[in-house]
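Bug report

Summary: structure tokens for Trypsin-like serine protease differ between web form and batch submission.
Environment: batch mode, default settings.
Steps: 1) Submit the sequence below via batch. 2) Compare with the web form result.

Sequence submitted:
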Amino acid sequence: MKHTNVSLAAHIASRGQFPWQVALIVENSWSCGGSLISSQWVLTAALCAGSSYEIVLGANRYDGSESGSLVVTSTTTILHPDYDGNLNNDIALIQLPSAISFTDYIKPIRLRYVASDLAGEVARVSGWGKTSEDSSGISPTLQYVDLTVITNTECADVFGSFITPSKLCTATTGGQSTCSGDGGGPLVYKESDGVYTQVGIVSFTATAGCEQGYPAGFTRVNCYLRWIDDITGIILPPCT
């Protein structure tokens, strides 16, 4: 497996479509995605962690040049205590230096327990990752794709015992997948009330590449809600 930095065969997002999406420029040298989960916390992958971040919020353009976007810096990261450096417990929190105000373009994604493994359901992933493996760099504009969640058993048929209950996988048929530049970004699912809930964090793809039809891998957020609550103090709504 390799960590994925979105997306192949993607759609261009409209402004404000993903107000929780953030871009992370890590140590002024490499890129990841993340999601705003409160006025002062960003959720991302542990493999995106660095000593400093430039965090772009409320933007469709990666450079944050649009009116209404916000760029802040942070040096505060909290890794999951059981992160092993090899994609297990691949989750981290970044604390913003001060609380930000929400706008039409900057809003948090909902976190709550989803009482299903979501197999067979369609979820949506967004990011600025490469649009092909041959691309020279990441996309300048925010992209998204809809992916079908598969069972962990199906995913383990490809990746073996590495697939644990704390991971979630999607099919990548039709050339649609996460790719380099998407790591740490949110996978969201529209529940029956019409509201999106974050269910995954972009984590890994097959070493063979993101255009080969192998499943895309995510950290399953359900498994880490207690940890997120303990660190951030966010009161998570129940699943109704």
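Above is the batch result. After comparison, the two runs are identical; trailing whitespace caused the diff. The CA atoms of residues 113 and 222 lie 6 Å apart. The first helix runs from residue 152 to 159.
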